[in-house]
Amino acid sequence: MSTPDRRPFPLFAILGVVAVVAAVAIAVKLQSGSSSESAPAPVAQAPAVLEAQGRTFKHGQGTTVVPLNPQRVVVFDLVALDILQALEVGVLGVAGDQFPHHLAPFADAKYLRMGTLFEPDYEAIHAAKPDLIITGGRSSAKYASLSKIAPTVDLPMGGVNYIDTVVANTELLASIFGKEEKARALVAQLRESIAKLKETTAGRGKGLVVLVTGGRISAYGPGSRFGVIHGDFGVPVAAEGLSASLHGEVIGSEFIREKNPDWLFVIDRDAGMGQQGGAQKVLDNELVQQTTAWKSGQVVYLDPLTTYLIGGGIQAVNALRSQIADAYSARAQ
Fold this sequence. Notes:
Helix content is 42%, strand content 15%. By secondary structure, it is α/β, with parallel strands linked by helices.
């Protein structure tokens, strides 16, 4: 009988078995190690990562994740610029070259020019590398394109709830920049002063708000862009049923005579746009002269810059309130 052929077990096979056993031993040791030696779970890190990236804010055109403590801020809205100045928030760049009264410091060359309120300079914006862009009003139409460059928030315009919108916009920007305490003080002062004005306007006759531009007259009622005078400041309405459209309702001097307002509030748009104003000449005619407002010296030419250009800023609204309060005070003497 022949003996079976016994060949030696290959060395590489032995080494392979040893390697597998060692690997299993290491895995068991890692699994049985103390929790203090284990790496943190990714899920536990997620909240911290999200917080570091920023916070989500709801605004006029949706929601946006805004970086914490944004420093490179570009502004395409005079209302926003008005509020940021009141909150003592610095900005990097601005749009346009016409800055009314209290916003005049932004004409300084130290603020980067980002185009106009209607047409952004995209090349300049990319070069500025903003971490936040703010739009609103005239620049709201450019929100979609600007939001592709950097986080962008859009401030809605006021309407029926004009002062509530001003307050909401102020609180939004205050929350983004950690200026909540400053905002509370500004809002409290505004609401208190408006409440005091309403005590005066309620019993002093009816009013009509008109805008004059290019020789044409438009009237604005409650819920319009200048409806704050009726809705929030409490001036009774002389002309019911006016359109609340952005451009008001076109009227003539006959309309003003027919409605016979006790107070006529006038906005000279041409003067507000840096052109030669002509509102006084347009209204100085025999029809308007028959009204109680004209006869009583109660035709008030509102500051066109703060009223027309930046009406929704908390400083601009306060300036408008102050001018109307002064007009009523002057006629009471």
